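DM from R.C. (forwarded with permission)

"hey, sorry to bug you on a friday — could you get me a structure for this? deadline for the figure draft is monday and I only need the backbone to look sensible"
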Amino acid sequence: MKNLKSTLIKSIIVILIILNGCSGDDPDSPQTIKYKASTSNFSAQVDAFIANDNSKYYNNIKECVYRNDFYTNESCSLKDLPLLGQEYESVTADTIIERLVITDDWMLDRFQEVLEILPDDILSLFKAVTAVVIATDVRPAFYWSSTGAIYLDPKYLWMTADEKNTIDQKEDYRKNYGNDLKFKMPYRYVVNNKQVTFSTDWDSNKDRTFEEMKTSLTHLLVHELAHANDFFPPTTINRISLNQSILSASNSIKGNRISDILRVSYPLKSQLLKDIAGINYRNETAKAEIFEYTSQIISEEFKNDLANDDYNYSTQYEDLAMFFEEFMMKYHFDIDRDFAVCDISNPDNITPLTGKNYIVYWGQRNRIGKSEIKEKAKLIVEYIFPFTYEKYNEFFNNLKKPTELIAGKTWSESILIGQEKGMKSQIQIMDTEVMFKIPYL
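My reply, with the result:
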């Protein structure tokens, strides 16, 4: 009965998507906010080139995706640059590289190395994109429905100090948003009580291992690919006409995207956390009382709602992408995700803050294991992998409940769950890491 109900719901949604012919953009929508932010995300002024000289779309790709004026100018036709899934039944590393735009040769090498070892289901997500851009002027990474492309910040895929030194070190334009709030909400990815994703230290000459680079890039990739599959759901790709622009094709699905279904089925209820996300990620003006809110208030709002990160509250699109990102990292690599609400302790007024300056009030590891949240994650997976979702059932059936981080410990200390010995040496390593939280779009 449950499978029949799920199938029926999906059939109805597919019909709605086919019939929906609306176009244009709501100027106040989160999607439009992304368009307006794109000029801050990248300049499109750096010399970029097509990674594969033999690409059949060599004359179209750069013109179609390496521009930042699509909010005022028409995007390319799908005839000129179709979605990968409109051309290929199965996607490989080679077919993705055929659609790659880069600003430095090493970006191709690193990206290809990771693509060649990624699981097939992650590669299949590229069917919803027209191209991939890796450019030194991209920060933060983002997906753009005007071009159908994902834009990757190269700070996620360098391995050598020489490679890192070719990257623009500009700050994310949102870095200082929300600095006046009394609390912070950091996250990290963890394996065996050790952090496996880190901020880039621009002053260091230390190289990164391939495994460190792969983990860094993969959690970014699955996040951006979640956006692409939201705007071009897998069940619609073969039904989309090539006789329209990329943006018009995306807008034809408006109102019936996966994130639209999610918003109705598992809505986020906390208006307070939505207001705080507006401050932290869009620099919206805050009500005076918000600056008086404590970690206790924020924690109660968060743990009684259906999010796995505060970034979920910024838009419905990020709500979907954050869940999918955590699921994929756990499913494929058994990498845990920590999230916490922390007080700030900085008696010496040091800059930058590190893990020892954040005091955990409340936090969890693997929040998607909570029963109601697990169901929300499962729904997302069913829609992003509509033809193979049953293979993930065993994972969800065996997914354990979240583990609580110990309140009162520093963020650095809280990484050690059920392991008190050796804490000091591990904490010293962690304390060198800057814990600012700067997400992608």
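R.C.: lifesaver. The chain has a mean pLDDT of 87.
me: no worries. The longest helix spans residues 210-231.
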